[in-house]
């Protein structure tokens, strides 16, 4: 977290959400799980990429938070403005409260538990009209979702460059394609080949659709270990900070989590994770349908990175090499499935 030395514009906007008057004192900027927002008191004020998606997320989190039964995790409650709005001047407000010290941790089993519980909960809420169908996915994740769930054949052999640049301001007409390194193109080609191989030409149009969380790893925080009091670690210590959702085949939320785990375990700068062990514990290691979802989830994560560097972010050779190794690792898993 970083502390601001002068007044932030968010403090002015924050006054619209603060029921007890204006914010006072220095604000503290939080990380990606809070959308880079500013903590003011016990409320986080953050910019939104799409007002309709942000409002849907807020309504959904508000509805889940008010359910009488526990789903095994908590959701971050939205804060309404004085006139009842969830978005004011392109910003949202979220109650941080006791979760202000929560942090991201590499706890794949718990993340997967949350992923499956999320889809079960959303299916029940959708059936009972507690929540609505999401209007779309905002920002780069939404663009990457379009790439991953579209015709992936157009992304191969460098086609991803044009596809990504079409999402840039101006349609990428003046874009510099130097962002597309050999390793990144190789990873994209490999992921596309896996999508085509796992779908086997059939696609997944007939699979049951659920309200899947397509960016769950970024949006889950865990309470500090010292607050758990030595209790058995469990997902009750987990908080979902945002609802970034789309209608996808059941299991896609977990597939995105595993895709992130694959990339992390392939990066030599991060602790190696036992991906196969996690899949075995959740009875996914021999699930062909899950590998089809996982291949698209991995392509989505590659797409998010590609959109980021194409938009001007600093590229990382280590991350790009990790994508290549993640694709190779997943290919070996699919080989094992075909051989069994």
Chart the SSEs and their pairings.
Blueprint: E1 2-3, H1 9-17, E2 28-29, E3 38-40, E4 43-47, H2 51-65, E5 74-75, E6 87-88, E7 91-95, H3 108-127, H4 139-148, H5 159-165, H6 182-199, E8 209-213, H7 216-219, E9 220-222, E10 238-240, E11 245-249, H8 252-266, H9 275-281, H10 288-310, H11 317-339
Parallel strand pairs: 5-10
Antiparallel strand pairs: 1-2, 2-3, 3-4, 4-7, 6-7, 8-11, 9-10
Helix pairs in contact: 3-8, 4-10, 6-10, 6-11, 8-10, 8-11, 10-11
Report on this model:
This is Aminoglycoside phosphotransferase domain-containing protein. The protein is of the alpha+beta class. It folds into two domains: 2-95, Phosphorylase Kinase, domain 1 (2-Layer Sandwich), CATH 3.30.200; 108-339, no CATH class. It is built from eleven helices and eleven strands. Strands 1-2-3-4-7-6 form a six-stranded antiparallel β-sheet. Strands 5-10-9 form a three-stranded mixed β-sheet. α8 crosses α10 (288-310), α8 (252-266) packs across α11 and α10 (288-310) runs antiparallel to α11. The chain starts with a strand and ends with a helix. Residues 2-7 and 226-235 have low confidence and may be disordered.
